[in-house]
Amino acid sequence: MHELSLSSAIVNTVVKHAQDRPVTVVNLRVGALRQVIPDTLDFYFGIVAKGTVCEEARLDQELIPARLHCGGCEREWEIDLPVFICPDCGVAGRVEVASGSEFEVESIELEEAACTAPR
Amino acid sequence: MHRTKVKIVEEALDANNTIARANRADFDRAGVRVVNFMSAPGAGKTSLLERVVADLPGVRVGVLEGDVQGSMDADRLASLHVPVTQLNTAPSFGGECHLDANMVRSALGELPLDDIDLLVIENVGNLVCPAEFRVGEDARVMVSAITEGEEKPAKYPLMFRACELVLINKVDLLPHLDFDLDKFLYHLDAVHPGVERIMVSAKTGEGIDEWRAWLTRVGAPVEAPV
User: Fold this and answer.
1) Predicted confidence (pLDDT) per residue in B116-138, tens digit
2) Helices A3-18, A38-48: inter-axial angle, 10-degree rounding
3) Measured distance CA(A50)–CA(A45) in Å, rounded
4) Per residue in A9-49, pLDDT tens?
5) Of B104, B78, B76, B103, nearest in space to B92 by CA
6) What's the Rg (C-alpha) of chain B?
7) Strand pairing of A103-112 and A23-31?
8) For a designed S-S bond to B129, which of A109, B98, B173, B177 qualifies (C-beta 3.0 to 4.6 A apart)?
9) ipTM score for this prediction
């Protein structure tokens, strides 16, 4: 259900950078820990994008796996289930998220009129 | 026409976080500590506030009450003679299912910041979206009622990780439900190892002293630098 708010956040971020140029692709990096459902995000993005430079844009979502790091034993591993405990150190481990929290607009692709003069 | 790729690399929620930092700076200047209070609908946020807000030793409390619409919760709290400000997401914000930094910012002018030490922001009831949006708070507290089931931390890790305190509410119902407390705590410690938790019952008062003490500690007026 948070995909609607997240879609608005994406569109606002893109609009800020697109400078009124029509956007064709939005490349998004989504961490597995963000609990985003890709199809739902895509659906809401299409709605929120209406009337903005994103109206014709495709949303490309790159899923970043959730990886944890233990400061106790320096082990790094990937998780599918939300278990933030080091398999070696147990509850004594100092577990941090190494990747998987991302929700970032990595880049946008846009159409622009051929440049007439260097800027 | 030709195609250009523009590198951005920006957290999509940066705009919200920037406003949240501005809110936080304003709260700090006013010497007000802020708690973002979150849970699913019906977990007992308002009841748990009713139990303590009028009675925090040495701490003057104000409440910012977030709801999609209506002021039922605000009215309940106002009857305890604490300043309550209602923030509805329906009229101005498209009926959003959470509060964000900008909504809280819009209410800043109505908050009696000079007369309070602690502002509790009661978020819209929802176990998902409020976890994503910082509003300028110092601490986040969530309520999980045992009637919601023991697997909730595993299903909503975002929320259970986005808080410094978990209030496990309605524990008076333990004898009447199939709720397996050990299993709940197992899931909670897997998702957010060691997070502070208090077993409470807004109905019987169990754990309320501990909850009051926690809130008093967070809200205690900051001593002016000498």
Assistant:
1) 999 999 999 999 999 999 999 99
2) 50
3) 9
4) 999 999 999 999 999 999 999 999 999 999 999 999 999 99
5) B103
6) 18
7) antiparallel
8) B98
9) 0.85
Backbone angles phi and psi of A74, in degrees to 5: 65, 15
Q: Which residues in chain A touch residue B4, judged by CB atoms under 8 angstroms apart? A: 109-110, 112
DSSP state of A7: H
B13 and A103 within 8 Å at the Cβ level: the answer is yes
Q: At what angle do helices B14-29 and A3-18 cross, to 10 degrees?
A: 100
State pTM to two decimals.
0.92
CA distance linking residue B136 with residue B122, whole number of Å: 13
> Rounded to the nearest 5 degrees, what angle is found at the Cα of B36, between the Cα atoms of B162 and B116?
150
A118 pLDDT exceeds 80?
no
Query: For residue B140, with 0-12 CB atoms within 10 Å meaning exposed, 13-18 middle and 19 or more buried, which class applies?
Result: buried
Q: How many beta-carbon pairs below 8 A join chains A and B?
A: 105
Across the interface, of A1, A34, A109, the residue whose CB is closest to B97 is A1
Instruction: Give, in degrees to the nearest 5, the angle at Cα B131 between A27 and B208.
Output: 170
Q: Cβ separation of A9 and B13 shorter than 8 Å?
A: yes
Averaged pLDDT, B5-14? 94
Distance CA B214, CA B197 (A): 10
Give the phi and the psi of residue A113 in degrees, each rounded to 5: -60, 145
Q: Across residues A75-99, what is the average pLDDT? A: 93
